[in-house]
Amino acid sequence: MISRGIGALCDQFLMFAVPLSILKFTGSTSLSALSFVIEWIPRVIFFPIAGSLLDGRDLRVTFLALDALRIVLLLATLLTLSLFGTFYSLTALMAVMSVCYVINFVSIESVIPNNISTEKYAHAHSWVQTVEQLSQVIGPGIAILIFSAASIRGILLACACLFLLSLFNMRGIRIHSAQATAEKRGLSVLKDNLSAIEYLVQDRKILFLSAMTWVVNIVYGVILSITPAVVIKLFHESENAYGIMQTTVALFSVLLFYLVPKIAARLGIGLVGKVSFFVILAGGLLLGVSGGFYLYLLFYALVIGFDGAFSVYIRTMRSSLIPKNILTRVIGMVGMLNLLSIPIGGAVVSALSGSIGLPTIILLCSGTSLLFALLLLLAGRYRLGWPGFFPG
Fold this sequence. Notes:
The chain has helices at residues 2-26, 29-53, 59-84, 86-115, 121-170, 189-202, 204-234, 239-267, 269-289, 293-321, 327-339, 341-352, 358-382. With 392 residues, it is mainly α.
C-alpha cells in the first residue's frame, strides 16, 4: 500500500504540472488537450496486452521493474527537456508513463483477489481508492511548492526520487501471484484476448458494467482535459488556485470514501454504484452552466469524488464476478473498453476549443453521455430484464 501511495502521489504531481506547463509554454488549450489524448491512447491500446502478458507472472518482480523503468524515464526527460521542447518531451513521457500505469493497475487488480478473502474485496478496493484520493489531497499542494520553486524540472526530479523510495519498499514485500493457465505462458496475446472476449460475450453483467463505465468516462475525460484551461483562461485564476482546487476536491473525495465501505456494508455496493452514476451525469451538466470559479469547484468536486466511488463499485463487482484464473486477461480487455471514451473526450476538446466556448463543449459532451446512459438503462431493464435497471 505504501508503494501504491507513492506511485499515486507521483501521478498527481505529473497530472498537475504537465498540463499547466504545456498550457503555460504554448498558450494553447488545443495542444494541452491533444497532449492529454496522446497520453491516453497507449493506455487504452495496452490494456488487453498487459492483461495477457501478466497472466501467471510474478507480481512483485513486475512492481520492481515498473519503479525502475519510471525512474529512468523521468531522469531521461529531465536531461532532454531543453533539446526536444516542453510539449514533445512531456507528451512523450506521459505516453510511456501511461503504459506503466496500465501494468501497475492490472497488477493491483490481480493482487487483491489472490491475497485476501472474498468478503474483504470491497474493503480492500476502498482502501486502494482512498490511498489514490489521499494522494490527490496532498499531491497538488506539494506540487505547487515544487513547481513554483523549480518548475517542471523539480517535479520530474521529485518523482524520480519517490519512485526510488517505492522500489526499496517493494523489495521487502511478499506477494502471492496466480499460476499461469491453459498452456502456461505459451499462450499468445491474440489467443488470450480471444478467450477474454469469449468470456465477456457470455457474461452480460461484465459487459453492462463496462458500458456504464464508458458512459461515465465521457464526462470524466472532458472534465480532466478541459479544467486547467477553464480555471486559468476562462475564470482567470492563478496556477495556485488550480492547485488549491485540486486539493479541495481530493479532500472531499477522501471524506466520501470514508463513507463508502459503511454504506456498502449496510445497504450494498449496488447503491453506491447507482448513486455515483447519476451524480456524475448531473455534475457534468451543471459544470457546463456554472458561471464562476466557486460553482465550478463545487460541481467538479461532485464529479471527481463520485467517480472514485463509482470505481469502488466497478472494481468490487469485477473481482466478485470474474474467475481468478482468468482475471488479468479479462481485466485487460475490460480496461481497454472502459478507457476508450476518455481520449475521445479529450479529442473533442482539442478539436472544438478553437471554435466554440469551453462551457459549450462541456454541455455537449455531458448531454451526449446522458443520452447514452438513458439508452443503456432502458436496455438493462427491457432487453436484459433487470428490475432495477442495473445488474444485481
